[in-house]
Amino acid sequence: MPEHDLALLIQAARDAAPIANSYWNTDQRVTHKEDGAGPVSAGDIAVDTYLRETLTAARPGYGWLSEETEDDPARLAAERVFIVDPIDGTRAYVDGQTTWAHSLAVVERGETTAAVVFLPQHDKLYAAGRGTGATLNGTPIRAGTAADPTGANVLASRPLFSAENWTGEVPAMKRHFRPSLAYRLCLVAEGRFDAMLTLRPTWDWDIAAGSLIVTEAGGRVTDAAGHPLRFNSASASSPGAIAAPAPLHAALLARLAPR
């Protein structure tokens, strides 16, 4: 990992928070993306602009991929790229809820090397560097040790529990939910929940940061078919994601219907 990338992301996330907070819980302008892809707020755009200008000025040779910036194919030729969701959990953000996050990552040749997920309303900053461990507000965190899907506390949307997604009976798991996918990953890294699953196509900006935080906390993250995650592809997406301690990850993968 290039020296100081993680420190750069931490500072950028903290500096973006006052911008996001200035729009949060106000009558800000909100539009809606095509094909039901969700809302985009004035706060999203303001934070995206700040992060893009700040991070690319600090690392002019890095590519840029963000949910709120028009995609530039030049990123595909960059050795390193910033992958950013300025506000992950926009629906919660515009509704005045508190569980939204800034999600920032540096990806090198498809693998995340530095990651930050910051929840300003909770003052929770998760961070990880490749090979250096994961932290919450500077304190090391570890994923849990659950191995059996039965009784596991799982972060997932309700449709995941449909019978067609599983081989045999749906495991008797306890379902929980948080609006921010990046935050869900961090909650697994912190050991507060046993697993996070999504079977829908998943954008890089939603999982590039959180996946490294889980891995550095001792958990395992793959796509929904069990393949390693690779970021900064042309599609900028993965076919779902599974995050859990390794034994539970294997058990969940064995119970899921083939994909």
UniProtKB/TrEMBL annotation:
Coiled coil: none annotated. CDD domains: CysQ. Its cofactor is Mg(2+). SUPFAM superfamilies: Carbohydrate phosphatase. Keywords: Magnesium, Metal-binding. InterPro entries: Inositol_monophosphatase-like, Inositol_monophosphatase_CS. Mg(2+) binds at E67, D85, I87, D88, D206. The keyword Magnesium applies. One of its GO terms (molecular function) is metal ion binding. Pfam families: Inositol_P (PF00459). The keyword Metal-binding applies. One of its GO terms (biological process) is inositol metabolic process. Belongs to the inositol monophosphatase superfamily. This is 3'(2'),5'-bisphosphate nucleotidase CysQ. It comes from Psychromarinibacter sediminicola.
